[in-house]
Amino acid sequence: MSQPKSTGRPARQNVEFPSAGGTAHGYLARPAGGSGPGVLLIQEWWGLDDHIADVADRLAAEGFVVLAPDLYGGNVAHDADEALRLMRELPVPRGVELLSGAVDHLLSLPEVTSDTIGAVGFCMGGGFVLYLAAVEPRVSAAVPFYGVIRGELPDFSRLAATVQGHYGKHDQSIPPEQLEALSEALEKATGRAPELHLYDAGHAFLNDQRPSHHPESARLAWQRTVRFLHDQLG
């Protein structure tokens, strides 16, 4: 893959790569300088839509090489019922397998300067950040945004990543007791307390294409995320 020229804007392209015994697709965004630490961006339950592509571009503008894998094979949900169906059709082990292939591809890129990667995800993708980091030592920075865990918490005994999470106080899908259980499980397994931030917002507060968008919370969470990724990855 040729190095992009520096134009002052992120370089973007659709890519395909081997994963989980087949060919996966995704969206790759590189910084204007052409190289930087690697970040895996994991979609909401809607799919790899314009919002996720925009977040990838924004992370690339901050100096990261960003890969957003398509976990739905080209499908994008147009309503909540369809999103729920697509999510349920993606078992957690299969999603983790696909994401591990994406980690392989991201770290194989010559423009990625880090030996490990960060993983950032939203909603369903926030849950997958934690599922992936629990089994993938090459994830050193895990950033779940309002991550939805399906069923029991994963076994974090092999977790190598430092965790910074972002959650809304008024998120009906993630009750406070679930966050308390997550924090306790992470600290018990790793000896390190996660950095979990709560905002005066509901679910999906970073998504500026949804009515739930909360600009003030989104700005603060974004600033914290970018700083955290640079601190952990260089």
From TrEMBL:
Source organism superkingdom: Bacteria
Positions of the Dienelactone hydrolase domain: 26-231
Keyword Cell inner membrane: no
UniProt signal peptide: none
Membrane spanning residue stretches: none
Pfam families xrefs: DLH
Cross-referenced InterPro entries: AB_hydrolase_fold (IPR029058), Dienelactn_hydro (IPR002925), Dienelactone_hydrolase-like (IPR051049)
GO molecular function: hydrolase activity
Presence of the UniProt keyword Hydrolase in the record: yes
Keywords from the UniProt entry: Hydrolase
Descriptive protein name: Dienelactone hydrolase family protein
Naturally occurring in which organism (per UniProt): Amycolatopsis dongchuanensis
